Every structure is written in C-alpha cells, then in structure tokens.
C-alpha cells in the first residue's frame, strides 16, 4: 500500500453500510455495530437499493451478503465500487468457494467474512479492511468455525426444548408473536411464554437480542431460519 491514502487510527469508529436481503439479520448487525461504537450510515436489502445509499452517504466499509435471490453480488461489485470509490467492500458468506474468492478479489472485494462467526470476529475483519488490509476469514473458506470451542450460547442451546428451538428459528425469520402462535397452533399467550423462555435461557431481554445471539453463535441459519446447532 502506498502512503497516498490517509487511514484512520485503529481506535476510530468506522462508517459502515450493510446490505443483506435478510432484513432481521441486517438490522441486527446494524445494532451490533452501533453498540460497538461505529456509525451505520445505511442499511439496504438488495444491491439495487444499495447503489443510491453509497452515492449519497460516505462509508468506509460496506458489509454485503454474497447471495441474493437474483444471484451473487459479484456481478454488482464493479458498479457498487464505481458509485463509491473510497468504500471498501467485505462480503459475508456461509461458505466461500475458491473460484468465488478469486473472482471477488479480482473484482475488488477487500474482505470475506463468515456469517457464523461471532460479531467481534466480523468486526475485526471490517476494522482490518478499513485500515487497508485484504482479509479472507479462514472460517469462510473452511465452511465455518466447527473446530472452535462451543460458545456459551451453543451450550445453552442444548437445553432448549424442540418448541423453543422452533420459536428461535421463527424469530430469526422475522415472524411476530401472533404469526408464531398461528403457525405453531397455540394461543398467543402460550407463544409469548415460549418466547420468554427462549430469552431467559439465552440471557437476553428482547426478541431482537435473541436473533443477534443466534446469528453470532451459529445456532440458526440467518438465510433460511434452519436450526444448525445440532
């Protein structure tokens, strides 16, 4: 790297744009970043919607999902970079194939992060990319942090009942308590009871926090809502 671009000191906050078609996950990530002291300047749910966000707001880093209903984001990267040349792009994926890695780096992607990583690890990828590095998260290439010690949330997940696991997956899909009750064939009061039990066992205080914990620790798929923790 040449000395032409002045990089912020490591302690400074980042200005970040998030793009993911899973709205609950995208919004949850924005909360995690804000809680860590960074500025989320925009959240978009498709590459098309991301373009005007990038044109209108200064962002140091854009965290964007690899796959959208229309295909992968790689074909959009040249247009996205052209709309905001100073923004560095980090692609978020559950599994990174070698040819995708090579195509992404060739298109100008500066980092790849794994969706199942804890928030702190994703943040570290963003920080390093914001400071000029090109970063490929090893877990994305390996398919996930399977060999790492189980997190506290994963340990607690073993004590969730099948009903509570179903509740957590439905929350991850963005379903309301009313929709939960209808889908599960129970009263709204019973659904609320199941939700409260999930929150208590995960040690959180809101449904959104529960989704954040589930996403951080790989308990459920953030793309399909499928239970992953075994």
From TrEMBL:
<feature type="domain" description="HTH luxR-type">
    <location>
        <begin position="153"/>
        <end position="218"/>
    </location>
</feature>
<protein>
    <submittedName>
        <fullName>Response regulator</fullName>
    </submittedName>
</protein>
<feature type="modified residue" description="4-aspartylphosphate">
    <location>
        <position position="65"/>
    </location>
</feature>
<dbReference type="InterPro" id="IPR058245">
    <property type="entry name" value="NreC/VraR/RcsB-like_REC"/>
</dbReference>
<keyword id="KW-0597">Phosphoprotein</keyword>
<dbReference type="Pfam" id="PF00196">
    <property type="entry name" value="GerE"/>
</dbReference>
<dbReference type="InterPro" id="IPR000792">
    <property type="entry name" value="Tscrpt_reg_LuxR_C"/>
</dbReference>
<dbReference type="InterPro" id="IPR016032">
    <property type="entry name" value="Sig_transdc_resp-reg_C-effctor"/>
</dbReference>
<dbReference type="Pfam" id="PF00072">
    <property type="entry name" value="Response_reg"/>
</dbReference>
<dbReference type="InterPro" id="IPR051015">
    <property type="entry name" value="EvgA-like"/>
</dbReference>
<keyword id="KW-0238">DNA-binding</keyword>
<dbReference type="InterPro" id="IPR001789">
    <property type="entry name" value="Sig_transdc_resp-reg_receiver"/>
</dbReference>
<feature type="domain" description="Response regulatory">
    <location>
        <begin position="15"/>
        <end position="130"/>
    </location>
</feature>
<dbReference type="InterPro" id="IPR011006">
    <property type="entry name" value="CheY-like_superfamily"/>
</dbReference>
